[in-house]
Write a structure and sequence with these properties.
This protein has about 150 residues and is mostly helical. Helix content is about 45%, strand content about 0%.
Length: about 150
Amino acid sequence: MLIARAIHSRGCLPSATRLLAPRRAASHSAHHAPETSEFTTKEGFGGAFWRNTLILSFLGVACYKYAPEANDNAYLTRWMAFYSVPRDVWLNLNVKHTVLQQESSDQSILFADAQVSKVHRYRSPQLLDQASPFLLPVGMTVDMSDVVAKRD
């Protein structure tokens, strides 16, 4: 009972008004008590950071020393060169594609610009065939070069 009264009187348990009251940014009740526990950490070069830095440094030097020289082809470069298609093949393929595209565009332009040929429709075409071509006397052939089609 005494412990409960002591806890309640010191304010360790939150009261209803304290829970419902708005907290301001400047209120920080946790920092009012003086800090008495001070401890120091041992700082040295034996930590994990320095160990990892040293290991990575040695690995970097070893990779630089034993890496292939610039004039030697690495394994990955040789593998890519083995499975890649030569430049001339792609060049020939592109030239062929360009020629075929040019032919296709020429044909499409030809078809787009094509027009129906003009046909002269005579009003009475049977009149041209009334006379027999076999019964005409000499010099009486019909000359059709002067016939003019009427425009509608």
